Amino acid sequence: MAGIFIRKAESEDARRLADIAYRAWESGILPLLTEQTGMRQAEQRRLAQVVAETLGRILVAEVDGIVVAWCSRAHRRAYIPYLFVMPELQGHGLGSMLLRRMEVILELEGAERVHLETPADNVLAVRFYEKQGYRILAMRPDGRAAHEPFMSVRLEKVLHPFDGVVTDED
Fold it and tell me: What are phi and psi of 34, to 5 degrees?
């Protein structure tokens, strides 16, 4: 795929990022759930809030100048809570590129391991992360209502932290 550019998210991207996240949720997670009234609107609001709260820790992938994917990291932790790619562009390497770039940032900060979670029933996501070098650590309930238990898979990847001096000189 030509014309791919990865950069930090900007405030003008917020609405687009929330839309990408919702579309990915709708195609990948919603089918695993029992849909209830208001669920879609609640998820749209939640994802817009996530984007607003984490904008400074989000990387985006653009294809031909259009934002099509994003990845965020937690504040002061080697944890990647969100990685979303537009459904129609999944499988083209965008998620891998974003994930690797985020891992490099964490390595430069000295992280020895990175963690993330994904729904256990989202087999495509679990396989994707395993292909990226992550290994499953544990499964746990993700805190949803007791009438609809939902298991989450916690994954980990060993990083190779940078152990040197970074200077501004060429």
Answer: -90, 110
Q: Which ranges of 78-140 would DSSP assign to H, the alpha helix?
A: 94-108, 123-131
d(CA 16, CA 114): 27
pLDDT, tens digit (0-9, with 9 covering 90-100), for 56-102: 999 999 999 999 999 999 999 999 999 999 999 999 999 999 999 99
Q: Which two tokens stand for residue 48?
A: 């817009």
CA distance 159 to 60: 21
The distance between the two most distant Cα atoms of the chain, rounded to a whole number of Å, is 59
List the Cα angle 135/84/96 in 5-degree steps.
50
Q: Which tens digit of pLDDT belongs to each residue from 49-65?
A: 999 999 999 999 999 99
Burial of 166 from C-beta contacts in 10 A (0-12 / 13-18 / 19+) = exposed
> Whose structure tokens read 């994003």?
70
